[in-house]
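User: These chains co-purify. Model them together.
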Amino acid sequence: MPAEIRRKTPEDYLRECQAEEEATASQKQGHLKIFLGYASGVGKSYRMLDEARRRRERGQDVVVGAMQSQVPEEVEPLLRKLQVVPLKVINGGTAVDVEALILRHPAVCIIDGLAYDNPPGSRNPTRWQDVKDLLEAGINVVASINIQYIDELRERVEAITGKHVDQIVPLSFIQSADEVEIVDAPPEAPMERSADEQVEIRKREDRLSKLRELALVVTADIVDHQLSDYLERHAIKQHFGAHERILVCITPRANLQEMMEIAQITARRFHGDLIVAYVKQASISPEDQSALDARLAIANAAGAHIEILEGSDPAEAILAFARSRGITQLFVGHSQRTGFARLKGSPLDKLIWEGHGIDVCVFPQ
Amino acid sequence: MSDQPRGKLKIFMGYAAGVGKTYKMLEEAQDLKASGVDIVVGYFEPHGRKETIAKTEGLEMVPRKNVQYRDSIFEEMDTDAILARHPRVCVVDEFPHTNVPGSERDKRWEDVEVLLAAGIDVLTTMNIQHLESLNDHIWQISGIRVRETIPDWVVQQADDVVMVDLTPRALLNRLQRGVVYERQKAELALQNFFREQTLVALRELALRQAAHEVEHRLVDDQAPLQPSDGALAVPRKHHKILVLITADPKTAMVIRRAKRVSDFLGAECFAVSVQPTGDLSGLPAADREAVERHLNFARNLHIETRILEGDDVASTLVDFGRRNQVTQIFLTRPHRKAWSPVLSRDPAQRVLGLAKDMLIVIVSDREPVSQ
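Assistant: Joint model of the two components:
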């Protein structure tokens, strides 16, 4: 219950956290932690092995199940201190030796490069499936991956890099991890070069920055997903507004073109979500219906997701939906306000008054 | 010294005490030193953390300055001593720190400005909580009004903002194992940042801000992230945002929100107060003080301000907006009492009635999530 939670002391939280940890530990399924990077060389291997070192110092049994053959200089001393279960050679290729690892059964296993495909004849076609087996065997796994290799991001990454990648991991697997941490670093600035090379360097930096931005947004989305889960599990109805979510309300007279333009640029700049909705009305004149249809066509053409809401009180229907989705910005048209609507107070008044934590953006009609 | 190129600023951004910002910064400092860069530590807060203290080994420390305030001696960064030493790079922990009264400058970020102006590169740390434009969001998430804030432009002009990430679970583990020192623990607890969901929300906010900082610095800013869902190719439109400043305490919130939106949209932003006399002389003392404070606040965030002359706030504001091709007007939510649909005297209500040809944004109050 919300009221109870408020009174908890830090010690309570620590106890809870500990209890949860223990519950996790006693379960059969291993705990998966993934370090996410936007390019090779940002320091994922280092972070992963540094974590391995810390865990070992805490007395955990850590082994390395897969590490790239050429490791950066600063990674080597960390690697030397850890037991390595070598990759298995199959049909001239290599794969994680899942059987050996399950037999050895460490508390924690380090797996670099989640996206590798295994050679034909292996236990699983891909390395991330090997990791699933390790987790199922109750081994905790610390792994790393570059965003390039996440299936759902492939198109966007290819648009940035112009390169096609074959080896992929589904986003759902990344989301299923107990913990995902981003390894962030600015693209490394190379030494001074000639003017021609400078242009190339500039372009490369640009590409890397776009990948970096994407990695940060993807991580934020994963975190958002976890937050929603948490709120749902604890039956907390409110939202935190950490993610901008725009709701565009369509009415027959709305200037949807302008609303959509601003909504799209706002959503894009804030890396936010955009939803379009309209409230179904029982009695609607043929003129209004065709006006509404024209606007729905605009929203459709813009690729927007359209929600159809129902309710006798349109403002109430919009508010209920907005609250349930954690909307932070509501786009509506100016009130027409004639006759009795003026005396009653318009639906707009209600939106402004009752939309707590929701900015109301009132557009010309 | 005036023809010195400005130093570069790099900010290590986190979402809570204990995520490892200082550690990461010192790691980089060690790397720089190893590659022969002349680097000193201008300010470091050890907090009794062994691993972090170990990372300062071999780094030159510029001694702190003693500042007397009332009956106590406080230690602050010695900016003059750093200037005299003039290293290539200086490490400055806790960017949002407020200096003890009597110091030359109020804020540490102002000291850092001085170092940058002298051509010294600076590495520094901060948490997302301290970004001015997010103050109301932080309040919503944690129920805490953070007092030590940094104007967004200070962060925007940094050459790089690096996200120092750690999962809340790992952070709570660190607390549990006592890796995070007592003061930090107390700080977190005190600030209600202890709840897992609060930490998760702050982390999300920090990640999104870091993504924005990257996008903001992209050379080719035309098409930041191509939307994958075949969205309209949006032509670049120039946005101009106008904020009404009144004595209403909610004005600060509207200024923050307007500034944040204009920064994200690449819009211009200005703020005006409307007074019959064209200055603040006609106002009762309390109101004058409030309006002045809000105007100052806007200026500190690099928003251009003006006092307009007019008897009718709403029509003066709307006229000014039309004359200056304003595309959006930001207003506080009206007081409920004044919210009579007919004959309202509330500016927000009247602006909505007068400017049906403009985009009007009513900024909602953000109340802490009860949990």
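The mean pLDDT of chain B is 87.
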